[in-house]
Amino acid sequence: MRLFSLYLAEGRGWGLVFLSPDPLFDFTFLRTQGEVTCLEPLTPFLPVGIAGCLFHGILRQYRAADLSSAAPVPLEELRDLCLREAGGVDFPFWDWGEENRPAALEGPSPAVHPLPRRDELGEVASLLAGRLLSLREIARLAGYPGEGGTAALQRVLQVLCLRGAAALVPALYPLKGSLVRCQRCGWEGIPDAGFCRACRSEACCTCPECRLMGPLSLCEPLYTAVPQRSAERQALEKAGVWGRLQKLFGLGKRDGGREEAGGREVLCTPLIFGAVPWGKSDRRRGVAEEEAPS
């Protein structure tokens, strides 16, 4: 099941908003990076296209603010914002009842899967450089077979995203109502809904143009690397790519925060309030809309 929940993690003087298929794993990882007092879910588990759309709505709300010294936004304010954003899309995937949200997490972390090793992180990060790949494509290239391998790979990718080394890209992104855009091939339209074996929904949808390359669905995440060093950026500048990526540091001008047709991806990286213990002064603040390499 490839469903993601938005959450707010808080520590002393900082907060982080992101989306995850396993908030408990994120909570455990964040506790290894610094003091985390709690992790509160903002939504039930959703297809990543819907979760990314709601996360992007949060970024639009706070994109003009100076978040480096800001206190975390109140939990209920973020939940209300997610509900308002959800009203703009016509995908009946979820029930917003309290009983359908993941449990809040606080105190000591229970035992979970081990954290990825440094060599695992480096290998996957190198595969993502200059590419936009699906989970199954990365699993095949990096050698993560079966369901257990896919789950382990998703933890590697989540750590890379939390560290700012990779960005999550929802494969199909809702634009308005039932209209979606494929973020790999650029197709836009209203796709046919049907049963999805991955998310178990009767109302999932796939891109009709990507079937020859491998179908992409509303519950499918794609990933790309975020350049970290000046040498990487210089190489991308020579290739004509860096100019399209540098808006990862902020949002470009869009009508209502939504991208018009033109093949541009919505990239998801954590939104940070305040000064996190592991952060850098030039850390990225969250989602950006800009072309990713293909």
UniProtKB/TrEMBL annotation:
It comes from the Bacteria. This is ComF operon protein 1. It comes from Thermacetogenium phaeum. The lineage of its organism: Bacteria, Bacillati, Bacillota, Clostridia, Thermoanaerobacterales.
